[in-house]
Design goal:
84 residues, mainly alpha, 46% helix, flat, hydrolase
Length: 84
């Protein structure tokens, strides 16, 4: 037990010593490879972050609509003024 703990601690120290430092610069981002699927997925990223996603944000109010992102749908569906 004690030997395995010593081996574990030693391997963790070696791993930390060999770790690379990350610098958040544009040059470091350019060195990362771009996934092959990225060119085909741009439309999906556009749809996910489109203008329609703005109503998904709301100020949290306790007791008003349980889910954070579902308030818009719930307000439209259960609003008596629009027949819901």
């Amino acid at each position: 037990m004690r030997i395995s703990l010593v081996i574990l601690m030693l391997s963790l120290q070696i791993a930390v010593a060999n770790a690379q430092n990350y610098k958040n610069t544009w040059a470091s981002l350019d060195t990362r490879p771009i996934p092959t699927w990225f060119e085909d997925a741009k439309f999906g990223i556009f749809i996910h972050w489109g203008v329609y996603s703005v109503p998904a944000w709301r100020k949290l109010e306790p007791g008003l609509y349980a889910s954070y992102a579902e308030w818009y749908y719930a307000k439209v569906m259960y609003n008596s003024s629009n027949g819901g």
